[in-house]
């Protein structure tokens, strides 16, 4: 691939410093441009029995055992939600949203806020590999089996160049981009770009721009020296009120509440 988005942009969760019940494993080098991480969690009933999930520009396959083997697909989200904590162990594959289509059996045109439709998008994984991964005794064996599956599926496929270039352009411009900017930069029509984005990522170019800007803002907001007024100009908001409104729309909490959660709950906040 011509660009490595993972080298300039790595999305974060609502609590990026969480360590006690959640673990991330980096993929092998060949999969790093496409896979954010493999992850493991064992809920302990903390955080009032639920965990905040925010739009992170990723899609997941989530494996768990509860009265049998389960593999759920979680598509790209454009709003936050709470997941209910149980005592169940989960193993996940977290794809970058712009890379899922390389591994899937169907386009991502209906993947926005989708959940549970693994058989539609990853039928061979659902029918064969999921049970093998869940049966593996160690976390690293689970990761190895998942990587073997993904490497076979990947083959020589590559990310749609218009989508890839547009995402890089948006990141490098701090989310200050328009659909026309992206279409002109790729020498394609607005309509063609819309089709490419929808089939590849499940969202329109405009939705992707806004999600990237939200994530960039959140990555700044968890830093100690964050300044909201500086961010208004940096990310192209019309004023502070606009920034705060847009943040809450995606995060579900006010910016003040979200930063407090990170500062209060994490013993690893030292940036």
Helix content: 40-55%
Low-confidence stretches: 267-271
What is the beta-strand fraction?
15-25%
**Biggest sheet: strand arrangement:** 1-2-7-4-5
Radius of gyration, in angstroms, nearest whole number: 19 Å
Give helix and strand order, one letter per element, not per position: EEHEEEEEHHHHHHHHHH
- Give a count of the beta strands, DSSP E runs of length 2 or more: 7
Overall pLDDT: 92
Category by helix and strand content = alpha+beta
Main sheet? 5 strands, antiparallel
Distance linking N and C termini? 32 Å
**Overall morphology:** globular
Query: How many domains, in number, for the residues?
Result: 2
Overview of the molecule:
The chain is an alpha+beta fold and 271 residues long. The chain has two domains: 5-154, no CATH class; 161-265, Homeodomain-like (Arc Repressor Mutant, subunit A). The protein is 43% helix and 15% strand. The chain has eleven helices and seven strands. It has helices at residues 46-49, 118-121, 123-135, 139-154, 161-172, 179-186, 190-201, 205-221, 228-234, 240-251, 255-265, and strands spanning 22-25, 35-42, 50-53, 58-65, 69-74, 81-84, 89-96. A five-stranded antiparallel beta sheet has the order 1-2-7-4-5, with helices on one face. Helix 3 (123-135) packs antiparallel against helix 4 (139-154). Residues 267-271 have low confidence and may be disordered.
């Amino acid at each position: 691939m011509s660009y490595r988005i993972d080298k300039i942009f790595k999305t974060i969760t609502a609590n990026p410093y969480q360590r006690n019940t959640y673990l991330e494993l980096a993929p092998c080098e060949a999969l790093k441009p496409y896979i954010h991480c493999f992850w493991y969690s064992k809920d302990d009933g903390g955080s009032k029995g639920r965990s905040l999930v925010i739009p992170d520009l990723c899609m997941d396959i989530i494996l768990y055992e509860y009265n049998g083997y389960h593999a759920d697909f979680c598509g790209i989200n454009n709003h936050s939600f709470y997941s209910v904590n149980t005592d169940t162990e989960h193993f996940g594959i977290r794809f970058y949203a712009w890379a899922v289509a390389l591994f899937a059996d169907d386009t991502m045109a209906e993947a926005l806020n989708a959940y549970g439709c693994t058989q539609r998008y990853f039928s061979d994984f659902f029918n064969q590999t999921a049970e093998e991964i869940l049966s593996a005794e160690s976390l690293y064996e689970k990761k190895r089996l998942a990587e073997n599956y993904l490497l076979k599926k990947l083959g020589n496929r590559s990310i749609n160049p218009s989508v890839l270039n547009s995402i890089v352009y948006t990141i490098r411009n701090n989310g200050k981009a328009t659909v026309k900017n992206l279409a002109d930069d790729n020498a394609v029509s607005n309509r063609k770009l819309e089709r490419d984005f929808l089939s590849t990522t499940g969202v329109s170019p405009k939705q992707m721009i806004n999600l990237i800007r939200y994530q960039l803002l959140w990555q700044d907001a968890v830093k100690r020296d964050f300044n909201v007024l500086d961010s208004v100009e940096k990310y192209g908001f019309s004023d502070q009120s606009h920034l705060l409104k847009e943040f809450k729309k995606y995060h579900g909490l006010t910016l003040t509440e979200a930063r407090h959660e990170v500062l209060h709950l994490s013993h690893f906040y030292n940036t």
